[in-house]
Amino acid sequence: MRFFRRGETLNERMRREAGLHDQQAESAAQASPPAPLDPVVAFRQQFDSGAGALAGAGLPPRARHWDTFVTADAPDVKGNEVDFVALPDGTILVEEEEGDAALEPLANAVETKLAPPYRAKAVKQTDRIWAVSAMQIEVARIESDGDTIELTQTNDGRALRVDGMPSFGSIPELESLGQAQAGPAYAVHAQRLDADLWEVRVAAL
What we know:
Helix content is 18%, strand content 37%. It has helices spanning 10-17, 20-29, 104-110, 172-182, and strands at 2-4, 68-73, 78-86, 92-98, 118-124, 129-136, 138-141, 148-154, 157-162, 165-166, 186-194, 197-204. The radius of gyration is 19 Å and the shape is elongated. The two termini are 36 Å apart.
């Protein structure tokens, strides 16, 4: 699992991963107020799966529908395929990559056409040229347990499942999103990206 911040040098990233960055930051914090921290992101384990179907909607798992397609010159990126998510603060969440090269060339190419947040898949075409497809996503901050949430609201009532198991609680943030985007009958699927940051999809029923 890996993430990086744009503009971070290889030496800075190595020091951060070795824990030196945190030690220096702790010493600096004693002399000055702490600066706001970027969210720490973790990897989603799947892109499209059975868990991606909207709960109760009778729909198949989300098909890959790309909003844009670009090419990028990225000779330092290894492997043949790369999957990543760009978050609103500019952080790159790397889901699949060989090696640890920065993905800025790929992300910068996408962002000539599409602003974060988005999900992207890059496929190598030559030794240095990559084809990159990207789709816009919606992210929201939600306080909840689990990694996957499925919420439906119909005339028969509300149903909530967390990690596939029925839950009797409520998640006001998702209820508000569902009502605002789809009206009184809706299905919402949320997948945790990191901490309280989730990728969210809404459909009308």
